[in-house]
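Appendix B, Record 12. Input sequence as logged:
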Amino acid sequence: MTGLFEEGAPRPLADRLRPEHIDDIVGQDHLLSDDAPLGRMLRAGRLASLVLWGPPGSGKTTIARVMAGHVDLAFESLSAVFSGVADLRRVFERARERRVAGTGTLLFVDEVHRFNRAQQDGFLPSVEDGTVILVGATTENPSFELNAALLSRCQVMVLRRLDDAALELLLERAERLEGCELPLSDDGRAALRAMADGDGRFLLNMAEELLRLPSTDRFDAAGLAALVLRRAPVYDKNREEHYNLISALHKSLRGSDVDAALYWLARMLAGGEDPAYILRRLTRFASEDIGLADPQALGHALACWDAWDRLGAPEGELAMAQCVIFLATAPKSNAAYRAFGAASQAARETGSLMPPAHILNAPTRLMKDLGYGAGYRYDHDAEHGFSGQEHFPDGMERRRFYHPVERGFERDIIRRLAYWDRLRQRAGG
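Logged structural output:
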């Protein structure tokens, strides 16, 4: 119910521009067009319980409100930040009363991932019996944050960050509503959209501040930067964005895409990522994806880590960038990574096989009497410095785990291995 004076109370521009019809929602055509998942549901006049997963300002709350109106459902809204079990019980009770009267209820839960596991389980009976159509909104990956039981009863819809065209459409709507143009040049306008970083709410809040300015000046990108605060990049060091960006950095390095790798490094540093985490991943990459194709890679990564420890930020960031460039442009091989994986599998399969006696040390008389060390040939005394003796356990066939690639230093290793194979066959013959 609207209060006596509420209608005349000031409302933020973002709220006044909130769409009331599904066709007015921008940037989510992949969900809302006639042949898209939500579009088909709405055309059929029915809704299933949903989880709307997307970045801030992408329209999750707006979509829930519009859907409720489109299919004539009562709209109930809760925030998991401020609500508890008692609030849920009251909502469910009102929903049951409406259901008796023939009206359904859409329950919108913002930040649904903030409910604990027991609270999430509390939704299940009311969702299963149709007391409520649940629409949860989250900025976090539902796979990690929501109960499997709740997820199995909801369809997950992924919202996209608003693209440049969608943000421009919001600015045009704001100008029409206010009856005046934003005091921005073309590059200032583009800078404002870039500052929003796909967040429609942030964009409209900034537009509202600009429309209130008494000045008639038109601001370019530099002037705009002096007026408003830049939106911090969406980045959570403990959640999905953390893993998304390190994956992007790692795969850019693996793909030898040096420019993309530098970009993802910069994104992680701008988001406040722990440099030690990045350095650990760079060091791992040097062994996992370069290995002996360039034996200097691991030393370079460790030197970079040492430089960071000595310099800190911001000077140490240059050493990190240098390391990323080195790793991205180095020849790649995962032969060492695959070799150790294969050897580990063989070790699990073969159990506790003893080494052959001839390569065992015999520090005591008893061990010598038992044959420890008997028949061992000292490689340095052999022709070519290679005895060709067997070093695998007795009863285990010789296996090849390491398969170097024809790139970088591993080309030389291939020739050495082939040379030793010939000598080994000659010694065996």
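The first helix runs from residue 13 to 16.
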